[in-house]
Design brief:
Order of helices and strands: HHHHHHHHHHH
CATH topology of the largest domain: Tetracycline Repressor, domain 2
CATH architecture of the largest domain: Orthogonal Bundle
Number of domains: 2
Largest sheet: none
Strand content: under 5%
Radius of gyration: 20 Å
CATH class of the largest domain: Mainly Alpha
Number of strands: 0
Number of helices: 11
Low-confidence stretches: none
Helix content: over 70%
Distance between the termini: 49 Å
Shape: globular
Mean pLDDT: 90
Length: 214
């Protein structure tokens, strides 16, 4: 789904800037209130635009929301796409954990946008979850299973390993308020490095130790 203004023959720099302004405002609104709790009026106000002007660029709230979800899914899955079958398993898993944590640090609103969509039953992206996302996860699960069969890591359920990495890393975006409340005001950005160090140990020590016993 593309912006309405993008369907014109030639998009101007001003049009592109307006679209980005709307999407930036909508990201804040949707991540705070969810799709159902958000309105075009809220987004227009956050963007500093009139409602008719906003609707010139995006015809509906659904169009804005879907554009944001499509962008988010592409960016969010990039670390998983980079998972390399020919790489060292430990290095690949460590890199994946760190890149996911970096995304939680740098794109917390996008993570909450996705979480809100999932909590509502994924009405706008169910096809993507059952299609391209599932195919990508299955592909990477085969890589992990191959490492286990070669004795490079412990035998494990690769899908649940991926789910576990998702849940532990995205916690630092979706529950950041809770994390900061528990760690205290001095936690700062180092909480992500501390999390990376802990999660690397959590996943890699188990996979490494168990592999030696196989």
């Amino acid at each position: 789904m593309v912006a309405r203004a993008a369907k014109t023959q030639r998009r101007t720099r001003i049009q592109e800037e307006k679209e980005e302004k709307i999407l930036e405002a909508a990201l804040g609104v949707f991540s705070a209130y969810g799709f159902r709790g958000s309105t075009i009026d809220q987004i227009a106000e956050a963007a500093g635009m009139s409602k008719p002007n906003l609707l010139y660029y995006f015809r509906t709230k659904e169009a804005i929301h879907r554009t944001l979800l499509d962008r988010m899914l592409f960016t969010w899955l990039e670390p998983l796409r980079a998972f390399d079958a020919d790489g060292d398993p430990e290095a690949e898993i460590r890199s994946y954990i760190r890149r996911k944590l970096e995304m939680s640090r740098d794109f917390p609103r996008e993570s909450r946008l996705f979480a809100n969509e999932i909590l509502q039953g994924a009405p706008h992206i169910e096809d993507e979850l059952k299609g391209p996302l599932r195919e990508l996860v299955d592909e990477k699960a085969r890589i992990i299973r191959g490492w286990a069969e070669a004795g490079k890591i412990a035998a494990c359920d690769p899908h649940h390993l991926i789910f576990s990495i998702w849940s532990t890393t995205q916690h630092y975006a979706d529950f950041d308020v809770q994390v900061r409340a528990v760690l205290g005001a001095d936690a700062g950005k180092e909480r992500f490095e501390q999390a990376a160090h802990y999660l690397e140990g959590l996943f890699l020590r188990g996979l490494r130790a168990a592999a030696k016993d196989t």
